[in-house]
Structures are given as C-alpha cells and as structure tokens.
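Anyone opening a protein record will find just a pair of labelled lines. With that in mind, the following record should read easily:
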Amino acid sequence: MKLSHVIATAAVCLTVNQAATAQAFEDKFRQLNDDKFRSPNIYRTASGAPGHAYWQQEADYKIQVALDDENQSITAQSTITYTNNSPDTLRYLWVQLDQNRFKKDSIGPQSQATGDLDRVSFSRMESMLTQEEFPAGYELTEISNEDGEPLAHYVNDTMLRLDLDEPLKSGESVTFNINWQFNIIEAEVLGGRGGYEYFEDDGNYLYEMAQWFPRMAAYYDAEGWQNKQFIGNGEFALEFGDYRVEITVPADHIVASTGVLQNPDEVLTSTQRERLEKARNSDKPVKIVTEEEALENQKEGTSNTKTWIFEADKVRDFAWASSRKFIWDAQGYKKNDTDVLAMSYYPEEGNPLWERYSTASIIHTIEHYNDYSFDYPYPVAISVNGPVGGMEYPMITFNGPRPYVDEDSGEKYYSKRTKYGLISVIIHEIGHIYFPMVVNSDERQWTWMDEGINTYLQFLAEQKWEKDYPSWRGEPRNITSYMASSNQMPIMTNSESILQFGNNAYGKPATALNILRETIVGRELFDFAFRQYAQRWKFKRPTPEDLFRTIEDASGVDLDWFWRGWFYSTDHVDIALEQVNQLTINTQDPEIEKAWQKQQENAEPESLTTQRNADVNYKIHQQPDLADFYNENDDYTVTNADRNKYQELIEGLNEEQREMLKNGSNFYVLDFANKGGLVMPILLDLQFEDGSKEHVRIPAEVWRRSPEKVSKLLIRDKTLTQVVVDPNWETADVDTSNNYWPARAVPSRIELFKREDRNKSMMEDFNEELESGNDD
C-alpha cells in the first residue's frame, strides 16, 4: 500500500465517524459567550476582571447582644448604616432573617419532602417533634429610623423589607435600628449553622452563635437584590462593612469572636493577657486557658456578667462562641503581609485531639492558601469545637470532630477517620475565610463557587500535610462513581435544587479544578491564573463568568469546552479504545510485497477440511504427470511483468519519493469512542516489543469535529504491543475496563459465606430468659 493510501485510510476513518454522527452533531467547543455568559460591561470585563465602574454596597453595624444562659436565648439591638454605592436609587432595602428558617411554617420545613417513615431514628424523631413545638425565629421588638421613629417594613418569611422614608440615592447612606430576640436552637436537634450544646455530665452549655442578627441582603450589578428565601442549602450573599459588637455573657464564660478584642483588661486576667502576648511570637500553641483551669471554671455558674467588645473591619459577617467550658490556646504566624494570631477554643471533651491538631491546622491552612491565592488579611483566625460539624465566618470557624469515651473503661480514643476528619474540616473551614469571606461570591445562588473552589484548595493543602494524606475529594478517581450515577444535575444549578449535594457542589468542581491544574493547563500556568482570580476579586463579588474568563485570560488556554462539559452538563468521561490497526508502507517492490502477502496468508489458520484431509492421497500425487506451471507457482510468484512495472514506477519517482517507499515505520491507527459524552484529552501509555515505553498526550481538541468517535494516527519505528488509556487515572474515566489494547480480564474476588440457621422460631424467642431490668 502506498503512503498516500495509508494517510487516506486514516482520513476515511475520520470521515466515516463524522458521517455516522452528522445528524446529531454537537459542537462541544463552541464559545460560552454564545449562550451561557452575560455580556461584558463596565462592571465586569471580558477578561474576567472587575470593570472600571465596578461598585458594591457597604453595611456597617453596631450591635449590643446579651446571652441568657438560663433560658438559652439572646436579646439584642443594632444600628445599621447602609451606603448605596450603586448607580441606582433604592426605595426599599432587603434584610435577611435567617433564624426564621427554623419556624415550622417557614418555606424550608414546609418545602421539605417526606421520606420513608417506616424506620425512623430516635434523633430524627426528636428533630421532627422539636420542629413542631420549638418557639423559633426572630421576635422583632423595634424597627426604626435613625431618630427612633418607626420604619415601615414587611416580613416575608426569611426576608425583611424596609420601606425607606426617603429614596436612597447613589452615594448616599441611611442609618436605622433593628432590635430583636430569639430562642437559641439546640444544634444537634434542629441542625443549622449555629446553636447550643448541652453537656449533661456537668450541666453546662456551649454556644456557637451564627446567623444570629438581621443582616443586609446583597444588592449587586449582576442580580439586583439577592432576596431569595433561605431554604437551607443556599447560604448567604452579604455586604462588607465595619462592626462593633458588645457581647454580654456570664462572667465565667470565655468568648471567641470575629474581630479583635477591644477591652482585654476588663474581661481577661493578667495571666491570660501575658500568655496571649507570649503566644504571638511562640513556635507552638500557648495555653491561654488550660484544661485544668477550664475544668475548675465549669464547676460553678455565676449570676454576674461581663461584656466583651470586639471590632472587625471590612468583614461580610460576624459570629461568636461562648462557654465556661473553653480551653483556649493560641500561636502567632507572620509572613509577608500576614500577621495573624491563630487560636483554638474547645472543651476538655475535645482533647487530646484538639490541643495537638487544631491550631497547627489553622497555621498550615494559612501557609498554603497564601501560596495559592493571597496573604491572609485578618488579625485573627479561630477554630471552635462545638455542636456544629463545620461552618465558617470571618476570622472564626466552628468544627465538630472529637474523641469518644469508651463506656467500660472511661478512656478516650479517636479513629483515624476522626483524626484526619478534624484536620480536614479545619483546613476547609479556615479556607472559607478566603473563599467566600474575602472573595465574596453569592452563595445563595452558586454553592460551588465557595465550596468547590475551597475544596480544591483544601485538597492541595492536605497533600502538603503528609505523604498519601487520605483526602476524600480532589483526586479524579474519587469522583467516578458519582459521575456515572443517575439523578445528577449540572454544577451550574441553583443551590436549593441540587441533588447529591456534596458530590455536586464540593467534589465535582474541586476535581475539575484539580484536573485543569494537573492535566489540562499545567501547574505553573493554572496557579498563576488562579492567583489572578483570587487577587482580582479579593473583597469583591465575582460571578462564575468572572472565574472562567479570568482563568482563560491569565493562562492563555481556551477552556470553554471544559467549562461546558464539567459545569453545564451531566456528561461523564468514558473514553474507550475500540481498535488498533497496524499499517506499513507498500514498497511496490514485487519481491518484497508478494513475499509479505504470502506470509500473511500462511499466518491464517488452515480450514478444518484441510486439516482433516492431511492424510489424503491426492490425485496429483498418484499421477505426477498431471502437474503443470500452476502447480509449481502460486499467486505470489514474481513475474517479469511485475519487475518491469516496478522499474517503471521507480524511474518516475524523485529521490525523496523513493526514500518514502523504503520507510519501514509502523503506522498505527487507534480508534476511540467517547461513550460518556464529556470530551477530554486522550492520555496514552504505549509499550513496545523491545520493552521500551512512551507516554502520549493528545489534546481534547482532537474531538472538535467528531465528539463521539475519532481515530488517531501514530507513526513509530518500533512494534507496538500494548496501549493503555488514562494510565494514571487523571481524567475521572468512569470505566477503565475499555482502556486497554489488547483487552484485559477484570480482576475481582469471590467471597464465600456460611448460610445462616433459619430454624429459630417464635417459640424459642418466647422462652428466652428475661434479662434483669426488663421484668417490669
């Protein structure tokens, strides 16, 4: 076969594949600007950067709050100053009333579908009954203007509309007052992101106060008011501002809070203040309140109170925690523009796990998130152990894992899962101080923009903790079962509508970003581009387009096909290697080619008839005189005509063309099928007859004209013996069984079991000896 025939054959493969899919062709590489992205404007540019007219609102708060430790409730009053930096005139403002979500008639509980009630855990039953009975939600005791005059308003479930006395023009500010009270929920019963924990052994409480005050809803160029009701999953869209918060608690409580303590002389002992100063320059955590001191402190309550005053600048939220049970440790960390005091607050139930790992995990997070995004901008970073499993706020996080106590021995133990679960959740929640507490995405709309991005960075930080750290999310191999599952929705789905929430909003986007970094773009380019995104949108509110555009702008890589497949569809990766064809150049030399043809025929199996006739005494053997020219020559005999034709061909070629006919390379045509629908690069390991190996990376653009089937030509001097697709499991390919040529057997195990005895009867159960304590 001529070289032109080889190339034509490969072209035919492509043409046939295209023809087979022509009617259903979908351009996986069309630009997202056509149908997904908002048009660039003066607020958000086509490069993904904030525009020259970018603006955002500001909300400043002064709050006084008192904790009632006897009745687990708070009473508070606030003065809010709202600045309209938008070009619009606002006639009303929207405020979030997140505690109203726990009311039984709120949209969250009312829209919750009922699952199977045949078997219900005691904890679930307690939650259902408490939801019906608990007096939850805000009692708004005053809503007034700056002069104390009542301000017209309307409560719409979890949202409050304030009708302004005068329209708020661009560049103007308005000040108003909101006073309230509410009963604190028991977090482990009603869930949520804050609440109290009761310790039955010593009769004390631990409070984690989040979503505790009426907060200004976000108003921004891309959405207007983000006043979607709080159903439970979609978290928050908030404005930056400055806070001064006065927290009155029992005098024996220790308070952890967003912000910097303004009155340490009034609420801390001299010993505690000295320890804090020492901690700032220590290379390990310093106990501000020791375990022994905490245990002594929790023995008796008090009717006296103290007021802790905190101030925080340029934050979008505020949270705090309070308990007389707290152990408190701290350690300073300084590098570049970061000067932070890392602090942990935890009851003795958290030890020995917390004193060893909590503050170390905070500092580890800051070290590595700084590398990938920007220097940590706040003066404190806090991890609190309480009833909330994991939640984040500016400068403070709530984290749940603890050791357990053996009921027989009374000893404390923790599992490997608990240890790494604690380290991971602290990395994750402290990481959230970067995303979305600084890079202020709209969580009510796009959960993945904070959870997925943060889970990606969490994975990078975890892998710097120790070799083979057991990360749950980030590795492509860990997302394949989800990618192949049913009942999926695209990542670009509103937070409240997502199915398989953890995989969709955390795992899949984190894995996608990791694949971009490791496989598509490369570490150096992707890290540069991601830092550009983080620094462009620090203390601003990005949308998904801003992230997508920035990564492309700063990396120089067109990734619309990737965003479309991973973020806008539920396709998965399944690239199958269906066939490998080996071709070599037809030299046109009859001496060589007819010998080659004969060799191919001889390699074919003999027919069964020929095999069984092996002992036949053929007629031609009985009468040799019957043999003639055709018995002595076969179809592969070279004739003079063949030689003359070859000589005529050679004389008509130039030297370069003659050399082409002598090319002894192998032309391998590999046929691939995209069974999952998600176009991705084709990554190959090739193994040759001489034992050598080669890695080949074919870009995703190979699928641009035929997204279902494609053939690829590889020219090699050596003989190919094995091909493996995605050998390092980089692409989240859900079915690796079709990734091999030649095909491999899939290994598994047979588990033997012993059949259970099914002869036990009700008669035997009736006569079973009654245990003590059951005779009533």
